[in-house]
Amino acid sequence: MPACPWEGFFSAAQLKRWSEAIPLRFACRRFSAPAGVDQQITLAYTAARVSLPGVRLALLDCDSNRLFLSLPFFPRIEYARQYVAVIIDTGIENAQLHAGVSGEAMVLEMSAMGLGSCWVQGTFRRSAVDIPLSSREKVAAVIPYGQPSSKEGGRSRRRKPLKALCLDKPETWPNWAFQAAESVRIAPSALNSQPWRFSRSGGTLRLSGRGFGNINFGIAAMHIECALNTQPHIWRFSSDNKGLLITYKEET
Ligand SMILES: Cc1cc2nc3c(=O)[nH]c(=O)nc-3n(C[C@H](O)[C@H](O)[C@H](O)COP(=O)(O)O)c2cc1C
């Protein structure tokens, strides 16, 4: 069974800080200024600290017009001067999932610092990412960041109700399971697809869904870690490898 290396990887203080940042985060696509020098230093530390196996987070300067694509029906990223390249080692098991966890830790740290950011997996030119890669590495996504040009985006979150993500009745769940699923419900996902599905059996919550194992599911795992933090729980993959199981450990 593959490991869940995010379990116990982050400190309680980090998870608390990021948990408080979850409601503040939104997909920021327009920036007014770059992050300051002190903020860059903090982010460089964070990038090194949060990288799980198979993930490299590189902080790079950005030529927004060159890096981001202008596509019909997709909002363009504008005036970004910095970005994180989320690089994965394709030879490492579950590197995409790990990239979701590590990248979302960066995103939430940026929100906690008052910076705007946006996951971008589709609307950028991979050839414009200016960093040497080894033969096994590829750029999974980029995350432009900087001072947000407005705080408006936070108010326009479009999400499915929790019931639509649950295969059984969330109103019958214990509070920890409800909190975990609710923290995922407001997470970002590619094309706002919200692919996550939850079911509960006894003291175990199962996270699965279309495209299980991709970045969206790593983001979900990060949000669950934030929601549960020091509440005793363990992670494992389901036996069919199509889901993650979170088991709550009642304190004795
Ligand atoms: C893995 C991932 C990939 C994404 N790719 C893009 C992208 O290519 N272009 C873009 O403009 N937004 C992209 N987004 C941003 C989503 O569209 C956005 O998070 C979603 O619509 C929800 O909005 P919110 O983040 O403001 O809550 C991506 C988000 C995620 C999590």
From TrEMBL:
Residue ranges of domain Putative nitroreductase TM1586 in the record: 76-227
Gene3D superfamilies: NADH Oxidase, putative nitroreductase (tm1586), domain 2
Species: bioreactor metagenome
UniProt-recorded name of the protein: Putative nitroreductase TM1586 domain-containing protein
High-level lineage: unclassified sequences, metagenomes, ecological metagenomes
Single Gene Ontology MF annotation: oxidoreductase activity
SUPFAM superfamilies: FMN-dependent nitroreductase-like
Recorded coiled-coil stretches: none
